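Lecture 7, part 2: worked example. A protein chain together with 5,6-dihydroxy-NADP.
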Amino acid sequence: MLGNFKFSNPTKLYFGKDSLNFLKDELKNYGKTVMLSYGGGSIKRNGIYDSVVNILKSEGKTIIEDGGVMSNPTVEKMYEGAAKVRDNNVDLILAVGGGSTIDYAKGIAASAYCETDPWKTYYLEQKSPVCKIVPVASILTMVGTGSEMNGGSVITNHKENLKIGKVFDDRLMPRFTILNPEFTYTVPTYQMVAGFFDIMSHLMEQYFSNFDDNTTDYLAEGLMRSLIHSSLIAVKDPKDYEARSNIMWTATWALNTMLKMGKHGDWMVHMIGQAIGAHTDATHGMTLAAVSIPYYKYILDGICNNGNKGIEKFKRFAVNVWNVREEGKDDRQLALEGINCLEKWMKEIGVVMKASELGVKEDMLEAIADSTITYPTDYRTLNHNDVVEILRQSL
Ligand code: NZQ
Ligand code: ZN
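Predicted complex, written out as structure tokens:
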């Protein structure tokens, strides 16, 4: 464990079938005006909206309605929401939904009183807020992003062909989050499995970095094993509470900053996936799934052609996560077998395996690579042409 780090996470979690009961007590800690932010209407259809509104009313809150947060929330929606927070003097933003709604809530919480253009300041320039911040809390209805217990906020700017994440500090992390696995039962299969892959990707993006022996990697291996096990149950029976609750808990730990400790992370699958998202508006988890197999094969090729530095992690992934037997295999074969197991699992749960399924075409590859943020990584640093090549292999 070679890194130096600070670990803190202020988000209070309420987990389980009865977790909504705690909303009442939490609300007592905030002022009268609550902005209720939600997506395209799923919470109205499945009854979560009514349950939450009843609790808000019983606590005497003034509700500011803020529906219509789209998947991959846009910068225009963020400006609109920020103005609504300011105009209504909102005391708490309660985000009820998936990662998009919670990310958006953090964006507007930091933007409402920002004196500069928040897109430029927070997302393009990656600066920290210096203005008043409105508290955010969340009720999660779709599992995957980890937004419920982190400071991440990903906003899409279609005009600029950019989808950028800002990781805000503790002040923007949800003050409390309610996690009821049953709230996720109505998520459509496509979104559900996209979320499963998003979790796997968060785990892998942190695991595939560094060279030292780090406790965090052992934790990641355990979480991956749990996810693989439960996801195979959940795709057959989406109402299996045990599987769905394990996945919900795994998703939160996969990206609540704990697995980041002492790790550089890689995140290039996310960078390429987000660039695909900026051009196609495709579902986040599916953009990651579409490029992951070509990506990890490309990284492994680079490692094998450059003195094998990093191969240990690929071998460990095969053995510890997928139970691949080591005997009779050279390093590359063993490493490749791990990637093949990943591919087999992805097909079993039914994620998108090709970027072409998301509308990516050969003549878009250069532009998507232009929108991909690249930086040095531990195992193989990518340049523009590498990204184009990975994208080509994902068609
Ligand atoms: O909008 P509604 O009608 O609610 O429908 C949503 C949406 O269509 C639906 N849904 C959610 N809960 C449901 C439900 N449908 C039925 N029943 C329910 N209980 O599911 C669809 C997808 O929701 P969304 O919030 O867009 O999905 P997700 O949670 O995957 O969030 C994706 C966004 O999060 C960002 C992504 O880039 C993307 O913009 N990410 C945020 C991260 C973070 N904060 O740390 C990290 C991630 O890597 C990711 O980048
Ligand atoms: Zn993700």
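The chain has a mean pLDDT of 97. The first strand starts at residue 12 and ends at 15. Keep this in mind for problem set question 3.
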